[in-house]
Amino acid sequence: EVQLVESGGGLVQPGDSLRLSCAPSGFTFGTYDMKWIRQAPGKGPEWVSAINLDDDSTYYADSVKGRFAIARDKAKNTLYLQMTRLEPEDTAVYYCVGIGIWGQGTQVTVSS
After folding, report:
1. Are 16 and 86 in contact (CB under 8 A)?
2. What is the pairing mode between strands 10-12 and 3-7?
């Protein structure tokens, strides 16, 4: 069975940092786009960031630009989302998404 497995979420204070990881199970990342999408309580899904695995070009939502960074480690076959200067508005379940597959999500809570 092919799936995406996220990890790295948690409870942090405003201004803190977290790094989310996404590893494929049952397949290896190819040369397509991978995305991070989040869903806050009571809201619809929000696209956060994307990376083209062919040329490593990256894209960000305005709400996270300058604070989040998406990257891929080819050797570890793992996708990351480095999040800095976290804000309460970043509280959400974060999903790794690619080739029609959604991970199970990892909860990020930013609260003082």
Report:
1. yes
2. unpaired
Strands (E), the chain: 3-7, 10-12, 18-25, 33-39, 45-52, 58-60, 68-73, 78-83, 92-98, 101-102, 106-110
Q: Find, among 4, 2, 3, 1, the residue nearest to 79 by Cα.
A: 4
Please identify which residue in the block is written with the tokens 């790094």.
Answer: 19
Burial class (CB in 10 A: 0-12, 13-18, 19+), 54: exposed
Q: Show the tokens assigned to 109.
A: 């809570």
**How far apart, in whole angstroms, are the C-alpha atoms of residue 26 and residue 8?**
20
The whole-chain average pLDDT of the chain stands at 95
Res. 82: pLDDT tops 90: yes
Q: Around Cβ 107, how many Cβ atoms within 10 Å?
A: 12
Among residues 20, 24, 28, 48, the alpha carbon closest in space to that of 36 is found at 48
